[in-house]
Amino acid sequence: MSKDLAGAVRDVLSVDIETFRADAEADAEVVKKELRDGTFDNHQSIVGFEYEFYAVDDGRWSGDEDLACSLMRVPRRMLELIGFEKELGLHNAEMSTSPQPFNPHGLRAQESEVLARLSAALDCTRSEGMRLVSDAMWTIPPAGETAGEYLGGSVDDDGIDIATNMSDAVRYHAMANGPDAPETFTIEAPNVSYDAPTVMPESLITSIQPHYQMSHAADLPTHFNYAVRVAGPLLALGVNSPFFPPDLYDDGVDAETILAEAWDEHRVRVFESVLNTATEVDKVAFPRDLETIEEAVDRVVDDETFVPMPVTRNGERFDDTFATLRMKHGTYWRWVRPVFGGSSRSSANARIEFRPIPAQPTVRDSIAFQAAFAGLMESLPQRQHPVADMDWEVARENFYAAMRDGLDSGQRWIANDGHETTNPVEVYEDLLAHATDGLTSAGCSDAEAERYIAPLQARVDAARTPASWKREEVESRLTDGDDLATAITGMQQAYIRKQSETLLDGSFADWV
């Protein structure tokens, strides 16, 4: 790593935390005034999407099956060529779509943009013997390295700890070097306890993040509270990370125990345990309900200040008027979170960023979650769905139950007629019907709405998720005599092979 990065970290550590907090408080008043003035209102709902990937060896150059699907670092120049953005690890790449109106044309534009850009990126990376993978957690480390070595690698640059496999994201490097930083950042999960000197273990995980912007900013609390209540049921449909890289498991634990005690979505636990290691109050958390739009702004201000980054205000953008608050939002880690942004007054927006869903096996599955979330955000408030009256504690337990057990988690739901149920058929019949209703309300035909929701309906009908597919693959290999490491590696290679056949023009329902 260059001296410039260590110097940039030192610059961050020199920022006065009290001044940073005061600036964020002042920015909050700017945002609240603009909210009162209607600046964040729009004439229509808008959707957007963030889609994370990791890179693996596609075996083209090595010709070695043992190296196939091992993690690869993405050259920074490659990211520029494919128009993707850097994420935490050098193996990561992220795509963000252009926001579009929530209507049939906008949804088609979202899907077409993902397909067009991803297809071009796959062509470009293929020439380098590399493949981008859509998956919640990688399990095969780079060739010649263990996962522990890759995640824990760091160098001391004159007192500054620099993670050797982390991108030059100064904020993340600064987390390990502040005066109150812990000595290690910890993964705590069933049969896994791993410490690293930086936040690099978070780079195990990848996700998709649908965004929904309501037309009237003052309605954000209502939509937010509904989003909190659909988080558990949607996560239960999307679970996709029951296994860690094998060398991260505790010594002396047998494969059967690991299989039996594995949760369906360890990604949730990785994010929470690693980043909450360094804070007094859990910052990665399931959020409480909102009552007012002003409360949403205040929560970002009041959130524990972690890395007070230096802020430049050049006045060229509208959101430069609240640049410190926007910077502070970068460490406001909640599974559902409000966002205030906009490069110009005309593009100013208040939106909900929905973060529970892991990266999915195919583009169609990913877009299904985006469409379902947007449809629910449209339908549930319009219909005044009674699930709004579900206790927050129940919604929270739904979320963590989904993390542990996926579709077997007994999700609690209040159906449209007001009765409470844990019957998964009833839960998803009501949930997906309202997602479909929201899509048709936005102008989709019945057939188009059903097409968007079909991949999720197929999971309900088959009682099968990506996590259960992975469990079946590992269990089958263990039965055939493989040890745990071989079984997990074989499963991961099978996942990537299946994905290579279906990523752009299939769905998880095609995986048999």
Automatic annotation (TrEMBL):
GO molecular function: ligase activity, forming carbon-nitrogen bonds
InterPro entries tied to this protein: GCL_type2/YbdK_subfam, GCS2, Gln_synth/guanido_kin_cat_dom
Gene3D superfamilies in alphabetical order: 3.30.590.20
Protein name: Gamma-glutamyl:cysteine ligase YbdK, ATP-grasp superfamily
